[in-house]
Amino acid sequence: MNYRAPWWLPGGNLQTIWPALYARRHFGERPRYRRERWLTPDGDFVDLDWLQPSTHTHTQPVAGSERPLLVLFHGLEGSSRSHYAEAFADFAAQQGLAYVVPHFRGCSGELNQGPRAYHSGDHEEIGWILGRLRQQHRGPMLVVGVSLGGNALMRWAGEMGAQASAIVGAIAAVSSPLDLAAGAVAIGQGFNRLVYTTMFLRSMKPKAMEKLAQHPGLFDGARLMIARDLYQFDDAFTAPVHGFKNADDYYARASAGPYLHRIRIPALVLNALNDPFVPAVSLPGTNDVGPCVTLWRPAEGGHVGFPDGSMPGHVRTMPDQVGGWLLRAAAIG
Fold first, then answer.
1. What are the strands, taking DSSP E only, across the chain?
2. What is the mean pLDDT of residues 221-228?
């Protein structure tokens, strides 16, 4: 990836925080979405947001289109309104692609009804969503996963092996913690603990307690309320709710890193070396991946930041480069 951060945004933390809060997300109109709700096999629901055409075009990016479809799986507590999701929507509109953001359960603005939530290794949910999209979409499918969503996506591709090519043409993971244990340690220390951990727990704890009210006895609410970092949260909530023994078992079994050598479709893994969430020493090297996996390791960019331009900057450079790679890898355009 040919990327250098602007001089006025030095360091991984600024390159993470500023883009999410202040940078320009789109060059065209703000993305407009049409929401679609799918009922899941276990009696729950997931919400998908489909990009609608701008007022200046007459094309309609519907699921049955023959145009290429770009699918984005968001990160922890993300949504179709996350800065990166709107930036990829702008890229899709510019390229004439259909675009959809499936929300992980509980992330669409309405708490899901079932006992499960979502987690970093949720490849079963990824597989069900992609399988249903494949059934109703006639054109090529490209998929990008951001942070948590990227780990789950790569985990799915590793599980599927050569069978994944029947569903999607190419995939990409952006700023994904492919070693979940290392990521949990990094985000639980120093500035990261003070800022990022506090931010995540502020939204995750209340949602977890709502889930406990829906399903009494699902987990130990007292343990959850005293959790002070994501490891403790995962040990009290994520692991027991999703069938893992504890947080260590969850991180070991859900991490996509050990599965990268099994991927048999074109796959891009993008991680900035100054990402405050993902230690550079934890990133896979060329010997850890198979021939279908391309590694991009820019020195800068932060966590899902990659700002560009003069102040206040924009976040379209990363979607342009990742989206362009996906189109080339799938031989589209």
1. 33-39, 45-51, 69-73, 98-102, 141-146, 170-174, 267-270, 293-296
2. 97
